[in-house]
Design a protein that fits this description.
Shape: globular
Helix content: 10-25%
Distance between the termini: 23 Å
Structural class: alpha+beta
Radius of gyration: 16 Å
Number of helices: 5
Largest sheet: 7 strands, mixed
Number of strands: 7
Strand content: 25-35%
Amino acid sequence: MQTAVASNVALKEWAVTVQALAQGKQIVLLRKGGIREENREFRVEHQQFLLYPTYEHQRADLLQPPYRPDLEAVLQAAPPADHVRLEYWAEITDIYETFDAAAVEALAPHYIWTPNYAEERLRWRPKKPLYVLLVRVYRLPAAQTLPVLPSYGGCKSWVELERPLMLEGLAPVLDDAAYDARRAAVRAALGR
């Protein structure tokens, strides 16, 4: 892994998903785009980034039943609405694009969302592919709580933080063997 010493780039994702990534429960992100994205489509602009937990749009009924209690725990531990707590950094190891509902359903054991919700993401703007990103996640040596600036708001994927966070002392949440096994299982589910 070749990492920068600091980063000010963050990818917004549901806080409950960030927790699942941080606990090694999943290594998959499914992305299509946000309302405020350029052309309303997602682009992989960065291979490495901080994970920016968001609290909007999360609903227990969009999570598979074993993960629903995780949402309540995430909501109880949330920082004040005018602050964001950054604890994790991620690196994309694989990028796939799909238009195939069967592939999204085959991935269901590898993500916390309901298969119906994942397929909704696929069906939104059906002429655009769904990105399947495999990410290796690392814990920052210390959590950083920052004020939320107006530029961080809205339905967009990428955020440029006002100041970079130091990345020295990152610790992987999954060791090499565990990550490689999870990655191989996801690739097999996709028929790769």
